Amino acid sequence: MKNSYRKPWLLILAMGALALIRPIMSMLGLLERIGQPTASIVVTIVITLIWISVVVFTRVRQPLVVLLLTGITYGVFAILISAILSPVLTGQLQGPLTNPFAVISVLVTNAIWGLLAGLLASALQRARQM
Q1: Separation CA 122–CA 130 (nearest Å)
Q2: CA dihedral defined by 106, 72, 121, 31, rounded to 10 degrees?
Q3: Contact 54, 13 (CB under 8 A)
Q4: Do 72 and 118 touch, CB atoms closer than 8 A?
Q5: Vertex 27: Cα angle to 88 and 50 (nearest 5)
Q6: Quick one: which of 15, 19, 130, 3 has its CA closest to 79?
Q7: Membrane-crossing residues (predicted)?
Q8: How confident is the model at residue 26 (pLDDT cuts 50, 70, 90)?
């Protein structure tokens, strides 16, 4: 039997884009002004809580898959924004696209982030159904 569940791609793209607040804050120097590494950790936790809240409260089917894809989407967006903005800001390409292993690392790291958020969201959804 074929799985006919359609992924909420617009939601996945929107949540992935939301996470761009972290690298944008970094590029603008805001995270440094707030204080590292605390600022990065707090922003990551807030983004994660938003992702989890959205999928739990909208009752997204397959929250684990949706948040896994959200993490990967964010990774792709972060790589692209780095490729676009680093030449503008520094005059040369910097970031993951300069090293193929870095691209893989960014995607895997953010997939794991999404997977962990998805596990928490799945647990919360099950708890709400009890």
Answers
A1: 13
A2: 50
A3: no
A4: no
A5: 130
A6: 19
A7: 36-57, 64-89, 101-124
A8: confident
- pLDDT score of 65 more than 90: yes
> CA Rg, the chain, in Å?
16
The per-residue pLDDT for range 102-129, each reduced to its tens digit, is 999 999 999 999 999 999 999 999 998 8
CB 115 within 8 A of CB 68: yes
Q: What is the pLDDT of residues 91-108, one digit of tens each?
A: 888 888 889 899 999 999
**Which ranges of 19-59 would DSSP assign to H, the alpha helix?**
21-27, 30-34, 38-57
In sign, the C-alpha dihedral spanning 66, 69, 73, 79 is positive
Query: Domain boundaries in the chain?
Result: 9-129
Write the burial class of residue 123 (CB in 10 Å: 0-12 exposed, 13-18 middle, 19+ buried): middle
Length of the chain: 130
Query: Is the Cα dihedral 65, 68, 44, 30 positive or negative?
Result: negative
Peptide bond into 23 cis (omega under 30): no
